[in-house]
Design brief:
single chain; three-stranded parallel beta sheet; alpha/beta; 10 helices; five-stranded parallel beta sheet
């Protein structure tokens, strides 16, 4: 039986370090979360973020906005948070209603308060390989790298395959792996013979949102598989990897209970970093 790569332990390590920094430096970080509408999944994510923030002595503010809010009004709220000195960092919870351009909203956030790490300046540091320990890097990709480090997965010189090319996960994690001297292949919906690539991966990161996409026969024996896909089917959250079968052949992270926990912890860490 191979190792189940749970997110709980590395996430707690990140939170403990953030709590220590708050205490040592006497900080009073405040995280603000802007939530537009009543998306059930977003409600759960936001509750979890507030709970985690408060667990280490951080204040969290929730700004609830109606689905009917227009783009100009939302941008005005973002501008107020940019200029509110008591707010260390903030996020605008995605997804947004269709009538609001998410890229425009992300670009309007002050990069120094962008604790999701999505602003082009923060992303640019990742792609240039100049993001440091205090940089506000994208939460989920940073969580993936933290998970690999926690479980002592060697990255340098390994074949890493990333399935998915989103700006939120696929592209930045590919850049982070490249910065750590992996040989990186990015696969996507137009990739021919996906299995040929995935079977060659020492490290396989899957972030598509297509349940059961990665089967046992598509994975190399003894590889490290990180499942980032999340799809809600009824009350159940499922990943992109056939976990029960793949875990018999490779080390694998579950969904839920994997990278998701680290995403929230990295967000909290970023908020602490933004406060000094």
């Amino acid at each position: 039986m191979y190792k189940k790569l749970t997110g709980k332990e590395p996430a707690e390590e990140v939170l403990e370090k953030a709590k220590m920094i708050i205490q040592e430096k006497g900080l009073n970080p405040v995280l603000a979360i802007v939530l537009v509408g009543k998306n059930p999944a977003s409600e759960i994510y936001v509750r979890n973020k507030i709970k985690k923030a408060e667990s280490i002595g951080m204040k969290a503010e929730l700004h609830r906005l109606p689905t009917s809010i227009n783009e100009t009004e939302l941008l005005e709220i973002v501008d107020k948070l940019n200029n509110d000195k008591k707010i260390s960092g903030f996020i605008v919870q995605m997804p947004l209603p269709e009538h609001i351009n998410p890229d425009k909203v992300i670009e309007s956030i002050d990069p120094k308060k962008d604790v999701d790490g999505f602003h082009p300046i923060n992303m640019g540091k990742v792609f240039m390989g100049i993001a440091g320990e205090k940089s506000l890097t994208p939460a989920t990709p940073t969580g993936i790298i933290k998970m690999l480090d926690y479980y002592k997965v060697e990255i340098e010189g390994k074949n890493a395959v990333v399935v998915g090319r989103s700006n939120i996960v696929g592209k930045p994690v590919a850049a982070m792996l490249l910065n750590r001297n992996a040989t990186v292949t990015t696969c996507h919906s137009k990739t021919k013979d996906l299995e040929k690539h995935t079977k060659n991966a020492d490290i396989l990161i899957v972030a598509v949102g297509k349940p059961g996409l990665i089967k046992e026969e598509m994975v190399k024996e003894g590889a490290c598989v990180v499942d980032v896909g999340t799809t809600r089917i009824g009350e159940k959250l499922v990943g992109d990897v056939d976990f029960e079968k793949v875990i018999e052949k490779a080390n694998c992270s579950p969904v839920p209970g994997g990278v998701g926990q680290l995403t929230t912890s990295i967000l909290i860490k970023n908020t602490v970093n933004a406060s000094f």
